[in-house]
Design brief:
This protein is an alpha+beta fold and 364 residues long. It has 2 domains: 237 residues, MetI-like fold (Orthogonal Bundle), CATH 1.10.3720; 90 residues, no CATH class. The protein is built from 14 helices and 5 strands. Strands 4-3-2-1-5 form a 5-stranded antiparallel sheet, with no helix packed on it. α5 packs antiparallel against α6. The protein is elongated, with a radius of gyration of 27 Å. It is found in: Cell membrane. InterPro entries: BP-dependent_transpt_permease, MetI-like, MetI-like_sf, OppC_N. Keywords: Cell membrane, Membrane, Transmembrane, Transmembrane helix, Transport.
């Protein structure tokens, strides 16, 4: 029996490998996942939430370059290596965009950057303020590949860090929906009768409420925040899993291997978990891939409405909300870039789901 299962799994894997778009989408998801985990290693601005603001250079076009002077603060760097790796580091310097500077008599005089041909304000600072008087190490030319947002933050950094929320909400939401959906669907499908009627009543009520409206209600009940959104999205997606599990178990519980398990005196819990569920995983895998995509879209919608991830946390949906009016102000890329990122990630999960459906279809 195990050899047969292994051969079927290998056959499905071979069929999946032959699907170009499925394999390509899988690697796209892997790359985005690695970027979301190690974002602070890759981003130009590794401050927490990439929230280093420079209002004098707000809304600059992609490829913008400017000199920036970093003035050391009295705050000591106390973050651990793990904290800086996964959550960024506290700002230990004050960054100021400048257009020019001169050094004279142990004093560094710089001119703050001003756009539209204006001349910025001149300020001075003692060279002794810099460690070992090496001010050259604190004046660098910064290249903003994706430009800056309306607060002057590095847009590329915000995009890469924003991938973390959109990516991980899929995992958390699907995990929660699988736990609740498998439990409710198994009870309804295996026992039937009044238990089935009661659970189907709950499913139908939940199904009748618009998903976004239900998520908003749960979010308001749990409060605004990072994990609250994850839990809220997961609690609204279990009904699809439960309906699929219920239907599959209703058909599977009359098969001979289930009858044999009952005759051997196995408990219901073991029959469901050890015998029935492993044989109905194919549709669950497909629906989980689809739920990944749905969770990403729901979170983006919540962030756009202002009840998702809260500022200054980076989120693709919130970035669209902050900059959608720039579409008519001549800088549509500020809204289009995060929108394109959402589209790529959602499409990748949908293509993976289609590839898995074809690979697990025993009729092909």
């Amino acid at each position: 029996m195990s050899k047969n299962n292994n051969s079927l799994s290998q056959l499905a894997l071979q069929k999946f490998k032959k699907n170009f778009w499925g394999v390509f989408s899988f690697w796209v998801v892997v790359v985005i996942g690695l970027v979301s985990i190690f974002a602070y290693v890759l981003v130009p601005d590794n401050s927490k939430n990439a929230n280093q603001m420079h209002l004098s250079i707000h809304s600059k076009s992609p490829g913008f370059k400017v000199k920036i002077i970093e003035i050391p603060n009295e705050i000591k760097e106390g973050d651990s290596f793990i904290s800086k790796l996964f959550f960024g580091q506290n700002n230990t310097t004050t960054e100021i965009p400048i257009s020019d500077f001169i050094v004279k008599d142990e004093t560094l005089t710089y001119t703050e950057y001003a756009s539209d041909g204006l001349i910025g304000q001149e300020k001075s600072i003692d060279i002794n303020s810099f460690p070992n008087n090496e001010y050259e190490d604190f004046i660098k030319e910064r290249h903003f590949i994706f430009g800056t947002d309306k607060y002057g933050r590095d847009y590329l950094s915000r995009i890469l860090i924003g991938a973390r929320i959109s990516f991980f909400i899929g995992f958390v939401a699907v995990f929660i929906s699988l736990i609740v959906g498998l439990f409710m669907g198994s009870l309804a499908g295996y026992y039937g009768g009044k238990i089935d009627a009661f659970i189907m009543w709950i499913i139908n009520i939940t199904w009748s409420i618009p998903t976004l409206l239900l998520v908003i209600a749960i979010t308001l009940a749990l409060g605004k925040g990072f994990w609250q959104v994850f839990i809220a999205v997961g609690l609204t997606m279990w009904v699809e899993v439960a309906r699929v599990v219920r239907g599959q178990i209703i058909g599977a519980k009359e098969l001979q291997y289930v009858t044999a398990a009952r005759a051997l005196g196995f408990r219901d819990f073991r029959i469901v978990t050890k015998h029935i569920l492993p044989n109905i995983m194919a549709p669950l895998i497909v629906i989980s891939a689809a739920n990944f995509a749905a969770a990403i879209l729901i979170e983006s919608g919540l962030s756009f409405l202002g009840i998702g991830a809260q500022p200054p946390m980076a989120s693709w949906g919130a970035m669209i909300k902050d900059h959608y009016n720039y579409i008519i102000l001549g800088k549509p890329y500020l809204a289009l870039i995060p929108g394109l990122c959402i589209m790529i990630l959602v499409m990748a999960f949908m293509l993976i789901g289609n590839a898995l459906r074809d690979a697990l279809d025993v009729k092909n």
